Amino acid sequence: GQNIDQPTEMTATEGAIVQINCTYQTSGFNGLFWYQQHAGEAPTFLSYNVLDGLEEKGRFSSFLSRSKGYSYLLLKELQMKDSASYLCAVEDSNYQLIWGAGTKLIIKP
Amino acid sequence: IAGITQAPTSQILAAGRRMTLRCTQDMRHNAMYWYRQDLGLGLRLIHYSNTAGTTGKGEVPDGYSVSRANTDDFPLTLASAVPSQTSVYFCASSDGIGQTDTQYFGPGTRLTVL
Fold it and tell me: What one-character DSSP code corresponds to residue A14?
């Protein structure tokens, strides 16, 4: 079967750095997405990786290792507004998105 | 403002009733999708449409139907609602054929079936 694993919840301190991991087992791979979802709101796109390596976008970076079936989202200089769920999704060989259950990130002052 | 709208925002429905959730996008995206999101589970695809006039089944299509008469609208119908269909429903669209492009989500519809 297809599976996306993420930690259920993480806690970090304002101003710090946090890394949210995602491991996947899917039938084929055509890219990996990270989305942010604030409570009661819709998911919004953060990043897309299809090649191995690190993609940096401001305070957020996303890393991919296709051979290990592994990705992480790195958030720097954490702000209170970063409190949200972070969803990892993999596009399989049929170009269907398989979604993880999401990681709830709690930021403490 | 460009984007996706959904209606209603929330609804309480008696079991056995028919319900249509509406979704409209003004970005001229080819592909549209319906997901449900339940606590502790990832987003699950119900139905999708790669282009106007075509639809396909996702992971959890039973009890739901869709139509895509034009580019902008993609309604989701529950023919006879059951309590297990209580969920938050998100509509999304993307610019590519299939799901190769970034998906943009509507604000969601919170549905409770009693």
Answer: T
Contact B74, B89 (CB under 8 A): no
Tell me the C-alpha distance between B54 and A31, whole Å: 24
Residues in Cβ contact with A98 at an 8 Å cutoff, skipping those fewer than 6 apart: A2, A4, A24, A26, A89, A90, A91, A92, B42
Q: How confident is the model at residue B100 (pLDDT cuts 50, 70, 90)?
A: low
Question: How many A×B Cβ pairs under 8 Å?
Answer: 45
Distance, in Å, from the CA atom of A99 to the CA atom of A3, rounded to the nearest integer, reads 8
Of A15, B22, A18, the residue nearest A7 (C-alpha): A18
pLDDT tens-digit profile of A17-42?
999 999 999 989 999 999 999 999 99
Measured between beta carbons, the chain B residues lying within 8 angstroms of A48 are: 102
Q: What is the CA radius of gyration of chain A?
A: 13
Cβ pair A23, A66 in contact under 8 A: no
Q: For A64, how many CA atoms within 13 A lie in the half-sphere containing its CB?
A: 19
Do A71 and A17 contact (CB within 8 A), yes or no?
Answer: no
- Peptide bond just before A109 cis, omega within 30 deg: no
- B87: which 2 tokens? 């969920």
Beta bridge partners of A84: A105
Partner A contacted by B100 (CB < 8 A):
yes
